[in-house]
Design brief:
This protein has 401 residues and is of the alpha+beta class. 34% of the residues lie in helices and 29% in strands. It folds into three domains: 203 residues, FAD/NAD(P)-binding domain (3-Layer(bba) Sandwich); 90 residues, Alpha-Beta Plaits, CATH 3.30.70.2450; 56 residues, no CATH class. It binds flavin-adenine dinucleotide. The site of flavin-adenine dinucleotide has 36 residues, from helix 1, strand 2, strand 3, strand 9 and strand 13.
Amino acid sequence: MATTSYDIITVGGGIAGASLAKVMAEKGASVLVLERDAVFRDRVRGEAIMPWGTAEAKELGIYDTILASGGRDLPWWDGYVGAHRTSHRDLTSTSYPKEAVTAFYHPTGQDWLLRAAAEAGADIRKGARVLGVKTGKEPTVLAQVDGAEVEFRARLIIGADGRDAPFRSWAGFLVQHDPGHTLVAGLLLDNVHVVDDTSHAWLNPELGLWILMFPQGDGRIRGYVCYGEAAGFRLTGEGSIPRFLEESIKGGVPESHYAKAEPAGPLATFDGAASWVDHPYHDGVALIGAAGGAPDPTWGQGLSLTLRDVRVLRDALLGDDNWDVAGHSYAEEHDRYYKIIHDVELWETQLLMETGEEADARRTRAFAAWKEDRTKQLDVLLSGPVSDVDERTKMRFFGDE
Ligand SMILES: Cc1cc2nc3c(=O)[nH]c(=O)nc-3n(C[C@H](O)[C@H](O)[C@H](O)COP(=O)(O)OP(=O)(O)OC[C@H]3O[C@@H](n4cnc5c(N)ncnc54)[C@H](O)[C@@H]3O)c2cc1C
């Protein structure tokens, strides 16, 4: 079997693989992207990049590509508790990076980023399913391309095949999982009557519901319903769409928003439990995006983390000719920022999604503490992992100090 050689191979051409391919091809690396799907469909994935991820997209030079694919800025963030609006926030002046949320349609975004990677010189093979990987000094992947099995070799192979994909196990990484807490249902809807330069977030702590709406323009929104596993149902398939709308309205969404709403894609529900790999590099193989760390989708951090991975790995590879050293340096930095996001997500879940008397008392304590001192609330999920968090940060967040 003939083997073709590259500097970098990415297994997967999602936002992670496509972005890394573009930025490294621009720097002169020979890059191959092996992407299983020939055509991208709505897989109910993330379509809102938080302000700290928007800053990463700009730094990587992919922000304009995302906008050209139909993406848009949502400078405002409106928070509601039940039906009452509790915050109306201009993210472009109040978030640490002073950026907006970027909303886009995921399949088109993937297409445009892959096209941009091809324009930068990357070799893109769609409909190419990777079957296995061999780590080591000269790592290789085996892929099914045009009905034949083909082996490819690279200086560095990147696992970018998403949250449930097997690359990380094939490559011998130990995958860690949180116990389950929440479920996240997502649906694309047309004809939704809502202010469309704004991300909308409704919290209903009594019911353990967190509803999100990210407008994509012309009445189209990506909506998510996040709820506790204990509720005992999953919102999946056409038959569950009325229940999706019902739960959204229970959470606080005004009925009038959905008066003429029509589904524009599939409805699917995912486990919120995070999965990740500590130190996502060894022996010529690195993991980026959801393959390296798939956070709880409830908190919308996946795309921002993905873009941070791409930037940190790019800078490490450009900064050191020894790519083994560069790979380890990326992995160390990855662990630092992933841990901050992961810790804060677990705290937010405990504080905002748990129901019952004890949870209500915890919220009363925390909200009173936040009123006294806004810094206790933490802005990590919009502003990014700017500084480390510890036990004291946690106590301040819960109003226990
Ligand atoms: C319900 C839900 C809601 C979310 N909401 C948000 C949000 O609002 N904001 C946010 O920031 N993040 C959100 N996320 C997370 C976000 O979708 C992910 O972080 C992001 O998609 C990760 O990109 P990726 O490229 O790493 O993986 P993926 O998007 O999964 O892409 C992986 C690619 O690899 C390909 N592939 C898989 N196996 C193979 C193989 N064997 N060979 C070749 N190719 C292969 C796949 O076809 C796919 O194209 C959400 C996730 C979910 C599930």
